Amino acid sequence: MATVIQDAIMLLGDSITQFAFASEGYAAKLADAYIRKMDVVNRGFSGYNTEWMLSIFEQCFATKRNVDQGLAQKVRILVIWLGANDATLPHSAHHVPLVRYKANLASLIRAVRAPDSPRYSPDTAVVVLTPPPVEPERWARNLALLTETPLAPPDRDFDQAKAYAEAARQVGVREGVPVVDVWTKMWEAAGRDKARVGQFLSDGLHLNAEGYKIVYEELIAIIAKEYPQYHYDNLQTTFVEYSDIFTDPMNYRKLTQKRSAFTSQPALKARL
Asked: What is the average pLDDT across 32-53?
């Protein structure tokens, strides 16, 4: 088994997260930016909603006890990006009512931030991402092709996706965690024109390279503003560069011992 070498960034989400390690996906960009400083752990589950994710999270995010014993990685940044499936129309098996969606999202956040939680992690910076805009008819056509089934009425709605994005923003404010408003950023980039939203989507639902570019840039901006101690520019590699070994090659065993990515002990400030 692999040993625990460095801390992690965990991406918790649905298929939009699962696909984010593809070329130009935001997870791939994060992994490149944080290479040798933090691992990027993709916990994206295609088709999942917040209701199902509650159980998954208990199995993905280690308890404080296990982390303290060195049995699991410490998650420094937890990105929660859920809601695209919750926001399906009520006839869909993916649908989660809006009130329940907000409660589930809050539960995921509190699982990390509540001192009485077994997964309490005061060193974990939480960021919530809103679900993006959708193209219901385009997605319905692509879903029929993907599943080789007759074309069915759309199971998604543009305004419903917007409502769930607003709900995610509200939860972020109430729980005191920063929010990347993916819905609004893409809507504005599309000139507030429904006909142009598709330039950021690969199939009416999932993001393409341009969509992921927006997400990555906005997430990095949030980290720089809210959690600068976790920004990749403020971290060092957990193992020295080979050029450092060149300066004293006879002492390579000492030089190649693991070190902290932090040059000083980081501390998260409470957000009010």
From this structure: 98
Express each pLDDT in 134-172 by its tens digit. 999 999 998 899 889 998 899 999 999 999 999 999 999
Each residue's pLDDT tens digit, 189-222: 999 999 999 999 999 999 999 999 999 999 999 9
- The token duo for 140 is 């319905």
SS (H, E, C) 148-194: CCCCCCCCCCHHHHHHHHHHHHHHHHHHCCCEECHHHHHHHHCCCCH
Pick the catalytic residue: 15, 107, 117, 202?
A: 15
DSSP state of 133: P
Tokens of 19: 């696909």
β partners of residue 77 = 9, 125
Of residues 151, 154, 209, 149, the one with CA closest to residue 29: 209
- pLDDT tens, position by position, 69-88: 989 999 999 999 999 999 99
Contacts of 19 (CB under 8 A, 6+ apart): 25, 44, 46, 206, 207
Residue of 116, 206, 243, 244 with catalytic role:
206
Quote the pTM value: 0.95
- Told to judge if 15 belongs to the known catalytic residues of this protein, a careful annotator would answer yes
Amino acid at 97: P
Q: What is the DSSP string of 18-41?
A: HGGGSTT-HHHHHHHHTTTT-EEE
Whether 52 contacts 192, CB under 8 Å: no
Among 157, 202, 203, 231, the active-site one is 203
Identify whether the C-beta of residue 114 lies closer than 8 Å to the C-beta of residue 47: no
